[in-house]
Structures are given as C-alpha cells and as structure tokens.
C-alpha cells in the first residue's frame, strides 16, 4: 500500500510546481502535468475535499441514488483508503481536489471541532450531490483559498486559510442537510429499518450472546456508515444512533421491570450488559430513578 503523508508528495505525484505553502494544495487531476498510474491502494494522511464535475468518473468512490446532476462532493479524513486508480480514470476526473495537512488546522478552533463534520467519515455512496448554484458557491470559496495560499506567507495566512476552510465545511454541512431533506422518503425508510433492527435484536437471544448492539453493528447491518446513519436519525428523530439505542434499551428495560418479576441483575444480563450496575447507571441517568425505584 502506498502511503502519502505530506502535501509535497501529492504535488510530485501529479507534477505540480512546488507551491508556496507546504500544508495545502489544489489539484485539477485531468489537467495535471503528470497523470500517474496508481496500481496499489493509497492511504492518505491528509484531509481531502473533491468535487467531481462534468461527466461521470469511474474512480472508486462509488455512486448511488442522488438528487442533482450538478456534481458530487467527496470528503475524506486522514487515514482513509483510496482504491487503485488507472491513468484513464484520472484523465476523466473533471473538477478539483483541495488537499490540506492536519497541521494546518492544529491548535485552531477548527482543529478542535473538525470531528463535528461527520461527513468526512461517510461511505463513498453517501457523497454529497450538489446543484449548479451550490457548486458555484463552494467553488468560489475554493478559489479564495487557492489565491490565498499562493501569496507570500505572512502572520495572517493561516487565519485566512483556516477561516475559509471552515466556511467551505459549513456550506457542506448546510448542503448535506438539504440533501437529507430532499431524500425524506429514503431517510424515513432508514429510521423504520433501524427501529425494526433494534426490535429484532432485543427480541432474540443476541443480547445475551453478543452484548449490546453498537452503532457500528447497526450501520453495517443496514449498509451505511456509522456517521451517516447517526446524522440521518438525528435529522429525522432528533436523536443520533447511540441515543436511539439507549432510548430503545430503556423502553425495553421498563417493559421487563413492570412485566416480569425477574431481578434487575437478570434483566441487565438479558439486555446485553456485561456488568449489571451499568444498566442501573444508565437507567437513572435517563429516567431519574433506579430500576428498582421505577419498579416500585
């Protein structure tokens, strides 16, 4: 596996001139001086925001149902894997790819909250599909970023770059919100399938055998990334995936406390808790009283 750890490697790979800022670069792959043949998987330790424009490209980001033909935006966090890419596929990539090193935002407000932008961890088929107007908006921000990092570096350079990157990410968050609203029917279907999955899980012996269901388990069963599933649930229900699991768990515990005479410890084990006291802690946190007090 090829590993890319700095912006300079990206510039060398595509024949970019060594630009004036070592932590950020903008690629237009189909216009690159060198069109590489990438025959192995790549692990990139950089943030990447890519806009695929024009005709459909076969780079293995994948595509699914979408709303607009204007373009597809892909966001990747450091450490994610990109599949091998042929030279022909790179030549077909119309659009741009903004790449920056984590050090650029380290010790900034954006660096402290970068994980709040959960779309960096979505799966490929959960990409953002933007309209022509939205494309103009974000491309304008990217043009400003490009113009800034090509100037001589001064004491304001990092602040200007980071504030523009944050603006770009906030637009992405807004447009993802729009996409989830326009896919209302699909989102409601996800909620129903999630609820059905939890009911099926807790009605079986799986909690006793395998413990509590994790967000990752649920997302894999439904065919989505954990972050995307949580964001859809939050949009539709006001609770993310973990909160939904806890909600269903507490409701199930209430039924067992009032509908059976089993001790609290037994109920905890049947619900998948490794340690019974963990049920009591969670129950009191959510309901305000202990399981025994609730039963009384």
UniProtKB/TrEMBL annotation:
One GO MF annotation is: sequence-specific DNA binding
UniProt entry tagged with the keyword DNA-binding: yes
Check the record and name the InterPro entries matching this protein.
Homeodomain-like_sf, HTH_AraC
Q: Name one Pfam family in it.
A: HTH_18
What PROSITE patterns does UniProt report for this protein, alphabetically? HTH_ARAC_FAMILY_2
Q: Which UniProt keywords apply?
A: DNA-binding, Transcription, Transcription regulation
List the PANTHER family.
Answer: ARAC-FAMILY TRANSCRIPTIONAL REGULATOR (PTHR43280), TRANSCRIPTIONAL REGULATORY PROTEIN (PTHR43280:SF32)
**This protein's name:** Helix-turn-helix transcriptional regulator
Asked if the record carries the keyword Repeat, the reply is: no
Q: Which residues form the HTH araC/xylS-type domain?
A: 196-296
Q: Which domain of life is it from?
A: Bacteria
SUPFAM superfamilies cross-referenced by the UniProt entry: Homeodomain-like (SSF46689)
- Origin species, per record, is Mobilitalea sibirica
